[in-house]
Amino acid sequence: MKIITVVGARPNFMKVAPIHKVFQRYKKNIIHLICHTGQHYDANMSDIFFKQLGLPAPDFFLGVGSGSHAEQTGKIMIEFEKLVHSEKPDLIIVVGDVNSTIACALTAQKLHIKVAHIEAGLRSYDRNMPEEINRILTDAISDYLFVTEKSGMVNLRKEGISKEKIFFVGNCMIDSLVSILPLAKSSKILEELGLNKGKFILVTMHRPSNVDSEQRLSGLVKMLNSLSLHRKIAFPIHPRTRKNLGKFGLLDKLNENILLTEPIGYIDFIHLLEKSELILTDSGGIQEESTYLGTQCITLRASTERPSTVREGTNQLIGEEFAKAEKAVIKVIKGKKKTGSIPELWDGKAAERICKILALKAN
Ligand code: UD1
């Protein structure tokens, strides 16, 4: 059986690394190849993750790069179709909810190649998010749907997807987190940035709804400046956010207690997340990683597709108002912490379950 797994953007790499590792045990029956679409192409958004996660260089690189949604999705489809024709895989694996996910799932299905979707079933119920559209469409056309949390099972059944296709297996992103933790312990990033354990706020912000308009971004800058009077802030900055801060003349409005850095590699980032007093974010994956680590997480969004991090974990979904987010951060600093537990099957073994299921199908 020949399987091609697709990666495109930063959050995909940690989901695929454990899958690739486990497939090495099935080498007799399964050839596992990796295709990188090139959606993310900067060294610190892509290469560093391959290195740190122990992923081999991708077998195929489509070099698609940035563009509007239609341009990016379309280019990926055109290039991926050529690859499917020449490689004739038996199965395609896609992960998460980025444009590369839907582009390759759709291409493969039209060529009658089976598709497995890892991280299926998550729903924010906000169709303004490009990821929500990618999630709904990918799930609708996948043959094997691997679900990370219980809400995903309910969502998929509501959409009429048959039980036989759905597998509750846990979270591959947590597999990678579990395996990187020993290495993260020796990270020197706190010393490099001059931060004290448990006494700084970590910030990541990159959703179009938070960083694409001048009004939202200047609100963010104002809030961060105000919070930086209480604590140092580490702010590894996504290319989209940096570009827009520059465009709106806001880069030099951030005060000096805010450490702006380039995007940070996986090992150092996980160390920062573990040692921060709290994280303020709009990321999806970080809501899960902070829940696993027990780090306080304030999510600056109106909805989450990962409700178990709120119901069971340390995540607080605060909405989109900066004033509310600021209040929530101050509360945490004053000691009002949310206690949490780790959701079911987030045990570092999700990839083993997925590969076992797919290998059975191969026989
Ligand atoms: C994408 C995903 C989002 C995910 C995020 C993680 C979609 C629809 N969105 O958003 O779900 O949370 O990745 O980072 O797929 N850029 C660079 N260098 C890079 C990559 C991007 O400079 O290596 C810049 C480009 O100017 C590009 C912009 O960032 O236009 C946005 O990149 P894109 O891949 O379109 O979306 P993200 O915002 O990264």
Give your account of this protein's structure.
45% of the residues lie in helices and 16% in strands. It has helices at residues 10-23, 47-52, 69-87, 99-110, 130-141, 150-158, 172-184, 189-193, 208-211, 214-227, 239-247, 266-275, 285-293, 308-311, 322-333, 350-362; strands at 2-7, 31-36, 60-61, 91-95, 114-120, 144-147, 166-168, 200-204, 232-236, 258-261, 278-281, 296-299, 315-317. It has a seven-stranded parallel sheet with strand order 3-2-1-4-5-6-7, sandwiched between helices. The chain has a six-stranded parallel sheet with strand order 10-9-8-11-12-13, with helices on both faces. α1 (10-23) packs across α16 (350-362), α4 (99-110) packs parallel to α5 and α7 (172-184) packs across α12. It is globular. Bound molecules: uridine-diphosphate-N-acetylglucosamine. Uridine-diphosphate-N-acetylglucosamine is lined by residues 9-11, 39-42, 45, 66, 97-99, 130-131, 206, 238-240, 243.
Per DSSP, the total helix count is 16
Give the % helix.
Answer: 40-55%
What is the rounded Rg?
A: 20 Å
Uncertain regions spanning at least 5 consecutive residues:
none
Strand order of the largest sheet: 3-2-1-4-5-6-7
